[in-house]
Please model this.
Amino acid sequence: MQYVATGALACQRSQASCTLFAVNAKAKRIAVIPGDGIGREVLVEAVKVLEASGAPVEMQHFDWSADCYLKDGTTVPADGFTMLDRDFDAILVGAFGDPRVPTNIHAKEILLGMRFQMDLYANVRPVKLLDDSLCPLKGVEPKDVDFTIIRENTEGLYVDVGGVFKQGTLEEIAVQEDVNTRKGVERIIRYAFEYARQHARPGRQPKLLMADKANVMTYAHGLWQRVFKEVAKEYADVKSEHMYVDALCMQMVRDPRQFDVIVTNNMFGDIITDLGAGLQGGLGMAASGNIHPGRTSMFEPVHGSAPPIAGKNIANPMGAILTASMMLAHLGLNQPAAKIDSAVLEAVRQKKTTQDISGTLGTREVGEWIAARVAA
Model:
């Protein structure tokens, strides 16, 4: 697949500033939003690898970022989310966050806005160890760390319901509400059961573990417990298990081999997915998807914008590259996705990596090496 690039990144409210046109009229349309900091650097490499893979995709770039916000106050164009949902098959995002915007209002309105307004209710985070040298646990092999965390993505503590009373005084009261609806809880649990069934390992019964803290959060997580037990009856072929989240954290470190698929709420999912990333080599290796089945979904590496290392050519692009592969697989483009996964694995084995995982290459050099391997 050949691509022709035109234009340059520029701050525009709703128009693409750089477009890659695929020859194939049936190409999947991808919105690319690099964002801030190292997000801009790693997404360049992810796009480079996507081009090399020959995947039938057409990529259109949008510069929604701190730069845009600081220039004219724009975070998301008025029709931005509607346009993404209507005109694209998937969205590939870099990272958001910039010290020049202390409130990070642009990051909240773009990233959380995308999750909430586009109803991307399932955050899917694969935890897969590529080489034993990347895991801090002793005696762990790649086959021992291979599971997926599914996080509810549109409710919980992230809905920003609460307030502060008598702020700045000794009598200050701060309240943050954990919002859980029957609809939201049931659909993420049902999604997780379906995922466990579809991704069962050969010769092994599908298995799903639900994590909560119902022994303390009796109302909110009591709902999770009831729904989980009810839905489990419809999936008799899937082994259903439960752990309190504190016990889960201990078990993830003690024996990650026992897990296949884990489902949990928004806050706990945010925490345990970082723990999972630690098992696979750090945040620089972690990919994720924000999914609404049958609708436009968004894919992002999870490392954040990392301002202290931005512009130094040292950020690990593998998480972004693996995220691009995850996006292709979601779109049914399994062959180019497999080529990318294979090339990343070979890069890790040959130490063609950045410093954070004991390599000597820079961001660009890693991307170029993987792209060359994919294209070979």
Q: What stands out?
A: The chain has eleven helices and 14 strands. The longest strand covers residues 28-35. The CA atoms of residues 200 and 248 lie 21 Å apart. Residues 182-198 form the longest helix (17 residues).
